[in-house]
Design brief:
Chain lengths: 89, 89
């Protein structure tokens, strides 16, 4: 299997695991609550994704780099929404 | 920076983004609900993680491979718990 096909797996994985957080953000904004979403999960995941960005940069992997930057942004928005709506109750 | 240090970033990222789903699973099992957790997010994430496993295998990256296999298992348990508890109501 050539490198183009290998990169395809990476990009497809990247698109799915990145876009996956969009329905969660939309759901949180619509229902105005994310009580059941673990705060610790969000914090640990955001820290981990930041290290994936460093790793992706070091091994020069574009799929890892791009995917994790967008994943980081989406999860930061989910975290902010969760904290914002939990304080409103 | 040598390859040992680069691998450290990968493994640290892997431990964090993998272990991150444990608090979510524990929270779901304790509260017996995951109503606010998006079903579409879980399904898309599980599909994406499966492709990361393929990508990690192809580029021979142990951190990507190990992390995503455990992430897959934890998210499958979260998905099963969510569906199970939603049907009990």
């Amino acid at each position: 299997m050539n490198s183009v096909n290998i990169e395809f797996f990476g990009y497809f994985a990247a698109i799915l695991t990145t876009a996956a957080f969009l329905p969660q953000l939309i759901k949180t904004l619509k229902t105005k609550k994310a009580e059941d979403v673990s705060l610790l999960t969000l914090i640990m995941f955001i820290c981990g994704v930041s290290f994936w960005i460093l790793y992706g940069f070091k091994i020069s992997s574009s799929p890892i780099l791009i995917a994790n930057i967008i994943t980081l942004i989406l999860n930061l928005f989910i975290l902010i929404s969760k904290v914002f709506y939990s304080k409103k109750i």
